[in-house]
Design goal:
The complex is a heterodimer of chains A (113) and B (113). Chain A is mainly β and 113 residues long. In chain A, 0% of the residues lie in helices and 50% in strands. Chain A contains no helices and 11 strands. In chain A, the strands form 2 sheets. In chain A, strands 2, 4, 5, 6, 9, 10 and 11 form a 7-stranded mixed β-sheet that branches. A 4-stranded antiparallel β-sheet of chain A has the order 1-3-8-7, with no helix packed on it. In chain B, strands 2, 4, 5, 9, 10 and 11 form a 6-stranded mixed β-sheet that branches. In chain B, strands 1-3-8-7-6 form a 5-stranded antiparallel β-sheet, with no helix packed on it. The model of chain B has no long low-confidence stretch (mean pLDDT 95). The chains are: A mainly beta (113), B mainly beta (113).
Chain lengths: 113, 113
């Protein structure tokens, strides 16, 4: 059981470039989440999904898009990267509406120059 | 606006003594609270939680206390061990919808051997 995995672990982008972060979970969880963590800010929710084919905006969605085509995968896209998107990105999953505990991946450190 | 606050960025405690980490929240709709522990270069891991219908929850060396009237919760670790050295995040959610978590900014605990 790998739990929640994230690809890649590190990435450096130039301003204006695009990329996709992949999150995969093998726990058959219904809900999945993308967070970013910045110094002094804690974790902030970007987008989330309560099931395959569904997505919704979180606290800081601007500049990001997501897709949940398969239950086990949740993709986070940056169409035109900006230095303000330099951050550590965490994916998480939970089993569903009756569970509040979220399981986190190891994170992706993204630097936009 | 930060709805969950951890006002102490860091805390140092001697091994064997009690560690007390504090958390305050502003949103009275929050009714479920969690503590996460995070080591460097890893994702947060769930530690302990409490529902608003309780004022205390224990799990081994970890106890969480909730004071709803003061909108305050605390995590007690006793006895503290060097392996407890990590960043601790407080999180809150409403038991409806997608169970989105609102995180505090974290407290770095150092347990001195």
């Amino acid at each position: 059981n790998a739990g929640v995995t994230q690809t890649p672990k590190f990435r450096v982008l130039k301003t204006g470039q695009s990329m996709t972060l992949l999150c995969a979970q093998d726990m058959n969880h219904e809900y999945m989440y993308w967070y970013r963590q910045d110094p002094g800010m804690g974790l902030r929710l970007i987008h989330y999904s309560v099931g395959e084919g569904t997505t919704a905006k979180g606290e800081v969605p601007d500049g990001y898009n997501v897709s949940r085509l398969k239950k086990q995968n949740f993709l986070l896209g940056l169409e035109s990267a900006a230095p303000s998107q330099t951050s550590v990105y965490f994916c998480a999953s939970s089993s569903g509406a009756s569970s509040y505990e979220q399981y986190f991946g190891p994170g992706t450190r993204l630097t936009v120059t | 606006d930060q709805q969950v606050k951890q006002n102490s960025p860091s805390l140092s405690v001697q091994e064997g003594r009690i560690s007390i980490l504090n958390c305050d929240y502003t949103n009275s709709m929050f009714d479920y609270f969690l503590w996460y522990k995070k080591y460097p270069a890893e994702g947060p891991t769930f530690l302990i939680s409490i529902s608003s219908i309780k004022d205390k929850n224990e799990d081994g060396r970890f106890t969480v206390f909730l004071n709803k009237s003061a909108k305050h919760l605390s995590l007690h670790i006793v006895p503290s061990q060097p392996g407890d050295s990590a960043v601790y995040f407080c999180a809150a959610t409403m038991q409806t919808g997608a169970n989105n978590l609102f995180f505090g900014t974290g407290t770095r605990l150092t347990v001195i051997p």
